[in-house]
Specification:
Layout (H helix, E strand, L loop, with lengths): L1 H20 L8 H8 L1 E6 L2 E2 L3 E4 L2 E3 L1 H13 L2 E6 L5 H6 L5 E2 L7 H4 L2 E3 L4 E3 L1 E6 L14 E5 L3 H7 L11 E5 L2 H9 L5 E5 H10 L4 E3 L7 E3 L2 E3 L4 H15 L1 H9 L4
Parallel strand pairs: 1-5, 1-6, 10-11, 10-12
Antiparallel strand pairs: 2-3, 3-4, 7-15, 8-14, 9-12, 9-13
Helix pairs in contact: 3-9
The chain binds arginine (ARG).
Arginine binds next to strand 2.
């Protein structure tokens, strides 16, 4: 009896140790899994130049280079999964990717579902209008039809569900791509488009004779990499961002895609 009891305890203890060694709860051993697979999967929405966009068949941009640096640090290959912006967090949490690099603003709301790395970029929401528009400032958006990319911070700002903004947009139209909103603006179906400032500049740059970006910024935001809650990969991502910043490589990457005016 005595001997059997001891054996049972020993077996239980051994089992506990074995499970702890495997990382136990889900994402605790993300790094081991990645190294074993020889690849890290980043998910993004490549409709957001200069951060991620398609150049022919290739996906390129600032976030892609940062992601490549993360893969290099892990010593594995980078795999990119390009999906709709509002599917990014669900897809990450379904285990289909290891991290999100998508010019994603670190918001309190999103923090309920993901962990964010240290911020790597300061951004804001900008207003795009046609060159002949009477809209000259944010409050001119009152009652107007505004296009946004679905599920972005520009969408929440214009939708104003929590009532935190004093701007009361008349109607918010949501698009899968910022580019499609701009096409509708040019076609006269929208009064304005609200989108992040650097993508706004790229979009205006391609249509400078018909649209312009207003100087006034609507929000102040910080981009960060999103990871599953509790992922041990967050440390590697933070170290990579720190190294890119300290070595001057981050500035190099950014200036490759954003020319200083
Ligand atoms: N910064 C905004 C947000 O986090 C927009 C990001 C859109 N990014 C993209 N890859 N389409 O909501």
């Amino acid at each position: 009896m005595k001997i059997r009891w001891t054996a049972a305890v020993a077996l239980a203890a051994l089992t506990a140790v074995t499970f702890a060694g495997c990382g136990g709860s889900g994402s605790a051993s993300a790094t081991d899994k990645i190294k074993k697979a020889g690849k890290v999967v980043m998910t993004t929405n490549a409709e957001f130049e200069p951060f991620e966009y398609k150049d022919g068949d290739e996906i390129t941009g600032i976030d892609i280079e940062i992601s490549q640096a993360i893969a290099d640090k892990l010593g594995v290959k980078l795999e990119i999964s390009d999906i709709a912006f509002d599917s990014l967090i669900p897809s990450l949490n379904a285990g289909k990717a290891d991290f999100i690099a998508a010019g994603m603003t670190a918001t309190e709301d999103r923090r309920k579902n993901v962990d964010f790395s240290e911020a790597y970029f300061n951004a804001s929401q900008a207003i795009i209008v046609t060159v002949d528009s009477e809209i000259a400032s944010r409050t001119d958006l009152n009652g107007k039809i505004v296009g946004v990319q679905q599920g972005t911070t520009g969408d929440s700002y214009c939708t104003n569900e929590d009532g935190s903004s004093d701007v009361q947009v008349g109607e918010v139209k949501r698009y899968p791509k910022g580019m499609d909103a701009v096409s509708d603006l040019i076609a006269g179906r929208l009064d304005a488009v609200v989108i992040d400032n650097f993508p706004a500049e790229k979009l205006v740059g391609k249509n400078a004779d018909t649209i312009k970006k207003l100087d006034e910024a609507l929000t102040e935001e910080e981009y960060a990499i999103a990871l599953p809650k509790g992922s041990d990969l967050t440390d590697t991502v933070n170290e990579t961002i720190k190294e890119l910043n300290e070595s001057g490589k981050m500035d190099e990457i950014v200036s490759k895609y954003i020319s200083a005016e």
